[in-house]
C-alpha cells in the first residue's frame, strides 16, 4: 500500500472516531485533508478533477526555494501507531450513548452528561466529561456577560475543572483512560495553569492517537518558545509535520513553515487548509501579491469559505483595493454574517471608507461572538488610534498582549498610541518589542527610527541604524532611503547623503515615481557633484531639473552657469542660452 493510500485510510478512520466523540472541528479538519490528497483522475468525477487542477496551479506558481532541500514526494511518515481505543469503539453504540450524543448536538450538555452517569465504557466516560467541560465553559461565558458585559474583564471560571481534573487524574493513574480522555485532561490542566503537565499529557495522547487535530492545536498553544517546542518528545508520524508547520508559523519562523507546508503538498496536493496556511506565512513576509492570488483561488474552489478570509481582507485593506474588499464583505455577509471573521471583514470595509465608528461596532460584534478573537481587539485598537481615542486604543492593545505577548501588531499599536500621547520613551519601548518579534517588517524599524528622531531623544545615530534595517527589509513605502539621505546631510556627511540620495533616485526611476523627493535628490546630487568637480554628472542632474517649473529650475540654471565658469575659466554665457 502506498503512502497516499495509507494516509487516506487513516483519515477515514479518524473522521469516524472523532465524529463519534463529538469532536467535530477535528473531524472537519481531517475530512478537509482527506479531500486534499491527490487522487487518480480516472477514478473521480470531472468536477473533483477540475477542483484539484485549480488548486495545483497556485501550488506550482508559489513553490518556495526552501522546498528544494526536502524530498518532493511524501512526508515524514514512519509507522502508524497501533490504535487502542476502548473495547466498544467498533461495536454499535448503546442506546443511551446515542441519546447523549443527540443531546450534545442540541447543545444540551448537562442532559447529555446526566444520561451517561452510569456508563463505564471509555467512550461514554469521555463524552460525559467533555459535555461537563463544555457546560462549565458555557456557564462561564454567561457569568462574564452578567458580571462585566461581553467585552469586560471578569474573574469567572469554569466550575467543572476541579472535579474533572480529579476524575481524569484518577483514570490516568489507573491506566483506564484512552487518548481522547488524555486530550481532555490536557485541556483541563492547561486551563488551570499547569502547563508542564498539560504538555506531557497531550504528548501522551498524541503518541497513542495522532489524528486528533484539536490535541495538536492545544499542544501548539503551550509551545510559545523554540525551546519548549524542541523539548517535546513526539513519535514520528505525518501528522507531526502538520503540527511543526503550524508551530513554526506561530513562532514567526515563516520560511521554515513554508518549507514544511510545501513538503506536505507532496501528498496533500490539493488541501485548501495548506494553501491558506501558505498564504498566512507569505502575509507575514509581506508578499501581498502572492497572498492575494492564493486567496482568490481558494474562493474559486470554495466560494462559501469564511475562515481565514479576514486575513485576505487585511491584504485588500493594505493595498486599498476598495472594490475587491466591498465584494468580499458582501459575500461573507450573505454567507454567514454572524461569524467573527465576517464581522472583521465588514469592519475593515468600513474602516477603508473612513467610517471608523461603524468599523468599531463590527469589531465589537466579532468579540461578542468570540471573546478570544484577538485580531478584533488589534483592529479595534487601530480604529481608536484613527479616532484619536488613545486611552481606548491602549486598552484594546493591552487585551491582546496580555493574552498573546507574541502579537507584534499589538505592541506596535501601543507604540503608536503612546507616540500620539507625546510619550516617546514609552513608545520606543513598545516599538522595540514589536521589532524583536517581527524583525523583517520595515514599518516597525521606521516607526522606531522616527521615535529616535523626536526632540526628547534626538538619537540620530540610532535612527540611522533603524532606517538601514528598514531599507534592507523591502521598504515598500520608500521612506528609509530618503530619510537616510536627509539624516546624513543633516550630520554633514555629504558623501553618505549622496550615496543614499542616488539609491533613492534609482528606486524612484525604476518605479516611475515623481514628486518632491525626486527634486530634492536631484538638487543635492547636482550640488554635491559640482563641489566634487564631477561636472558631467552635475550637468546631467541640472538638465533634469530644467524640466521642472518651480524655483529648482532657476537653481539649476545658476548651477549650470557656475559649472561652465569653472570648466572654462571664462565668464559665463547669458542665461537666456538655456531653454526656458
UniProtKB/TrEMBL annotation:
GO terms for biological process: anaphase-promoting complex-dependent catabolic process; cell division; positive regulation of mitotic metaphase/anaphase transition; protein ubiquitination. Keywords: Cell cycle, Cell division, Mitosis, Repeat, TPR repeat, Ubl conjugation pathway. The keyword Cytoplasm does not apply. InterPro entries: APC8, TPR-like_helical_dom_sf, TPR_rpt. Residues 7-279 form the Cdc23 domain. The keyword Aminoacyl-tRNA synthetase does not apply. TPR repeats lie at residues 340-373, 374-407, 408-441. GO terms for cellular component: anaphase-promoting complex. It comes from the Eukaryota. PROSITE patterns: TPR. This is Cdc23 domain-containing protein. The lineage of its organism: Eukaryota, Viridiplantae, Streptophyta, Embryophyta, Tracheophyta.
Amino acid at each position: 500500500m502506498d503512502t497516499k493510500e495509507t494516509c487516506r485510510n487513516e483519515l477515514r478512520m479518524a473522521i469516524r472516531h472523532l465524529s463519534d466523540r463529538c469532536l467535530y472541528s477535528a473531524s472537519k479538519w481531517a475530512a478537509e485533508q482527506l479531500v486534499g490528497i491527490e487522487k487518480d483522475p480516472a477514478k473521480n468525477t470531472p468536477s473533483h478533477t477540475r477542483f484539484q487542477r485549480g488548486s495545483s496551479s497556485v501550488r506550482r506558481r508559489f513553490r518556495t526555494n526552501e522546498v528544494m532541500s526536502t524530498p518532493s514526494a511524501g512526508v515524514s511518515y514512519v509507522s502508524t501507531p497501533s490504535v487502542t481505543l476502548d473495547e466498544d469503539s467498533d461495536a454499535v453504540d448503546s442506546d443511551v450513548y446515542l441519546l447523549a450524543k443527540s443531546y450534545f448536538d442540541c447543545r444540551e450538555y448537562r442532559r447529555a452528561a446526566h444520561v451517561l452517569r452510569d456508563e463505564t465504557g471509555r467512550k461514554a466516560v469521555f463524552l460525559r466529561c467533555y459535555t461537563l467541560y463544555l457546560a462549565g465553559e458555557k456557564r462561564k461565558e454567561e457569568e462574564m456577560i452578567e458580571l462585566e458585559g461581553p467585552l469586560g474583564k471578569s474573574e469567572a471560571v469554569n466550575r467543572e475543572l476541579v472535579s474533572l481534573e480529579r476524575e481524569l487524574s484518577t483514570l490516568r493513574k489507573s491506566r483506564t483512560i484512552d487518548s481522547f480522555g488524555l486530550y481532555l485532561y490536557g485541556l483541563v490542566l492547561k486551563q488551570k495553569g499547569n502547563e508542564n503537565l498539560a504538555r506531557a499529557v497531550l504528548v501522551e495522547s498524541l503518541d497513542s492517537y495522532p489524528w486528533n487535530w484539536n490535541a495538536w492545536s492545544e499542544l501548539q498553544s503551550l509551545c510559545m518558545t523554540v525551546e519548549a517546542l524542541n523539548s517535546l518528545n513526539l513519535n514520528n508520524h505525518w501528522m507531526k509535520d502538520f503540527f511543526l508547520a503550524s508551530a513554526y508559523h506561530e513562532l514567526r519562523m515563516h520560511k521554515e513553515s513554508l518549507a514544511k507546508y510545501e513538503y506536505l503538498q507532496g501528498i496533500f496536493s490539493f488541501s485548501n487548509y495548506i494553501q491558506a496556511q501558505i498564504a498566512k506565512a507569505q502575509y507575514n513576509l509581506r508578499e501581498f501579491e502572492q497572498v492575494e492570488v492564493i486567496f482568490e483561488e481558494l474562493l474559486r474552489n470554495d466560494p462559501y469559505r469564511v475562515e481565514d478570509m479576514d486575513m485576505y481582507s487585511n491584504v485588500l485593506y493594505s493595498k486599498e483595493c476598495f472594490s475587491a474588499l466591498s465584494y468580499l464583505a458582501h459575500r461573507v455577509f450573505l454567507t454567514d454574517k454572524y461569524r467573527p471573521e465576517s464581522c472583521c471583514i465588514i469592519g475593515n470595509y468600513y474602516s477603508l471608507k473612513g467610517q471608523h465608528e461603524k468599523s468599531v461596532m463590527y469589531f465589537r460584534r466579532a468579540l461578542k461572538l468570540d471573546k478570544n478573537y484577538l485580531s478584533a481587539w488589534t483592529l479595534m485598537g487601530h480604529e481608536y488610534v484613527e479616532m484619536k481615542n488613545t486611552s481606548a486604543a491602549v486598552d484594546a492593545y493591552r487585551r491582546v498582549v496580555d493574552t498573546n505577548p507574541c502579537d507584534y501588531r499589538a505592541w506596535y499599536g501601543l507604540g503608536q498610541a503612546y507616540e500620539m500621547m507625546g510619550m516617546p520613551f514609552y513608545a520606543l519601548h513598545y516599538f522595540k518589542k514589536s521589532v524583536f518579534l517581527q524583525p523583517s517588517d520595515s514599518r516597525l524599524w521606521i516607526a522606531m527610527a522616527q521615535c529616535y528622531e523626536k526632540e526628547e531623544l534626538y538619537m540620530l545615530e540610532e535612527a540611522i541604524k533603524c532606517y538601514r534595517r528598514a531599507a534592507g527589509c523591502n521598504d515598500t513605502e520608500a521612506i528609509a532611503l530618503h530619510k537616510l539621505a536627509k539624516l546624513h546631510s543633516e550630520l554633514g556627511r555629504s558623501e553618505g547623503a549622496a550615496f543614499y540620495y542616488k539609491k533613492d533616485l534609482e528606486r524612484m526611476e525604476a518605479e516611475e515615481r515623481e514628486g518632491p523627493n525626486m527634486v530634492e535628490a536631484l538638487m543635492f546630487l547636482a550640488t554635491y557633484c559640482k563641489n566634487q568637480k564631477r561636472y558631467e554628472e552635475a550637468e546631467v542632474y541640472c538638465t533634469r531639473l530644467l524640466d521642472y517649473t518651480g524655483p529648482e529650475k532657476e537653481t539649476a540654471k545658476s548651477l549650470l552657469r557656475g559649472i561652465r565658469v569653472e570648466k572654462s575659466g571664462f565668464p559665463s554665457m547669458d542665461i537666456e542660452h538655456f531653454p526656458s
